[in-house]
Amino acid sequence: MSTNQNHFFHIIGRCYLTSDLVANQKVWDSEYYKGAEKIYGVERGKKLRLEGGFQAVASFDKNLTEKINLKWRWQTFTPYTFKAFDHNLSALASYKLNKYVNLNATVLGIYDWDQTVAQRPETRQINGGANLGFAVQL
Question: Percentage of the chain with pLDDT > 70?
Fold first, then answer.
């Protein structure tokens, strides 16, 4: 077993295709989006938008102690026009209570310029959670 482990990983993609789909007419008809020309980047009257661009990913996975593990992953995407960058960050801290029980805490953060409200461009999506898990290895 080597003590010189690389815990950091990154990759940059030259070409990546992303899609946005708004197929529910009730979304377009809702009072919230009244008068909006685009929803999630999809133009009014259309249901799908494909967008090519660059993607970069960085991740980290390391056992801080024998019982504590930290993982995070950051992903960004920008269309070839470079008009905006979308970010997705996830982090997981795991604590092994004993042989069968783990305690996990997660945080997810998303900033997607297509999904922000036009009147509030600083909008971010944050989600957090904690769980207690029982694991059996067969």
Answer: 76
Residue 2 domain-assigned (yes or no): no
Coil vs helix vs strand at 115: helix
Average pLDDT over residues 4-20: 69
3-state secondary structure 15-36: EEEEEEECCCHHHHHCCCCCCC
* Residue labelled with tokens 């026009």: 81
Q: How many domains does the chain have?
A: 1
Q: What is the pTM of this model?
A: 0.66
| Model confidence at 122: pLDDT above 90 | no
Whether 3 is in a domain gets the answer no
- Determine, yes or no, domain membership for 1: no
